Amino acid sequence: MIATLFQFFLLLQFNPSDVWDRNPVALTDTLYYQNPVFEPVLADPTVIRDGEYFYAYGTEDNWGEEGGYHLVPVIQSKDLVNWQFLGNSMAQKPNWKERGGIWAPDVTKVGNRFFMYYSFSTWGDPNPGIGLAIANSPEGPFVDQGPVFTSEEIGVKNSIDPFYFEQNSNKYLIWGSFHGLFLTKLSADGTKALGDIIKLAGNHLEAAYLVKKGEYFFLFGSSGTCCEGANSTYRVLVGRSKNIEGPYVDQEGRNLLNESSGTLVVRSNLEDNGFAGPGHNSEIVSDSNGNDWLLYHGMDKKKPKLGNGTNRRVLLLDQLIWKEGWPRIENYEPSIAPKIAPQFDE
C-alpha cells in the first residue's frame, strides 16, 4: 500500500506527547486513522455489519455537556473509523424492573430481524437481568420483548453482559460478571433459556465474547476495574477450547475457571498519556485484506471523565494480531499513533 507524502509527513512528525491536543478526524483519511475513533462515550460496544454500513451500540449513558442523555446510542460507519451518531436505538426504556440502566447491549441479525440482548441493572443490584429487544432495522427502534431471565430465575449472581452465539442452528447465550461466565442454550425463538447452565470461566471475568476460528472457540473476557477513570485496571484476556462447552484454557494451559488465568489481549498504555482501562471488546471484524479488527472502549488518561463525573469511555479500534494461534493487540496496548486503517471494498 502506497501512502501520500503528506501522510508520511504526519507519521514522521508524530509525537505521542501531543496526541491529545489533536482532532483525530483531521488525521483520518482512507489510509490512516488515530484513536479514539468515536467520542465522547460509547461504552461496552457491540458492532454489526448490514449492507455497506457498520453499526455500533453502547451502554445507556449521560454524555453531559458533550451530548446529553442517550438510551443505547447507535453510530454508523462504512470503514470502522469515521462514525456518525444516529441517535438512540431504543425509543422507550424497558419497564420490567423498577429501576436500573440498560447496559452492555449485544446486537446480532437473526433471520431478517435484529436482536438486542441487554443488561438491566444498577450498581450492586441484587437481582439484575438480561432482556431482549427486537427491531426491523439496525438503526432501530428496538422494541422490548421483556426479560430472558433474571439473576434469581437463572441462579447466577450478577447476570449481565450477554453475548449471543449461534452454531449449527443452536442458539446460545453467554453472560456473567465477576461471578463466572456461563453458557446456556436458548429456545428456537431466542427468548428463553433452556437446558443446562455451564460455567466456562471464573469470577475474574465479565463481558464475554466468543468466536470460532479454525478448530478453536476463543472466549474473550474483561478483568479488573472498569470505571475508575485514569486508575482503571480493565484489560482483555482470552482462552480457547475445541468444544463450545469448554474447558477453556489460556496459552499457558491454565483453565479459565482458575482466577489467575487468561492470555493477555490488551491492557492500559504504560505511558502517562495513553488510554486507561481498555476492555469490553466488540465482535471481531475482518476487512477486505483479511485483517481482523477489534473495537473496545477506554479512557484518555488526560481526560478520563465528563464534567458530570461520568467515565468518558471513548471508542478505540485496533488490528487484532494472531501469533502462534493466539490473538492480541500490537504491544498489548491501545494504539496512540496514526495507524494504517482497515480496508473495505466498495
Automatic annotation (TrEMBL):
Q: Which UniProt keywords apply?
A: Glycosidase, Hydrolase
Q: Does the keyword Nuclease apply?
A: no
Query: What's the protein here called?
Result: Arabinan endo-1,5-alpha-L-arabinosidase
> Catalytic site residues?
D44 (proton acceptor), E206 (proton donor)
Keyword presence, Hydrolase:
yes
**What InterPro entries does the database record attribute to this sequence?**
GH43_arabinanases, Glyco_hydro_43, Glyco_hydro_beta-prop_sf
Task: State the superkingdom.
Answer: Bacteria
Q: Which SUPFAM superfamilies match?
A: Arabinanase/levansucrase/invertase
The protein's site described by Important for catalytic activity, responsible for pKa modulation of the active site Glu and correct orientation of both the proton donor and substrate is found at: D161
Q: In which pathway does it act?
A: Glycan metabolism; L-arabinan degradation
Source organism of the structure: Algoriphagus halophilus
Pfam families from the entry? Glyco_hydro_43 (PF04616)
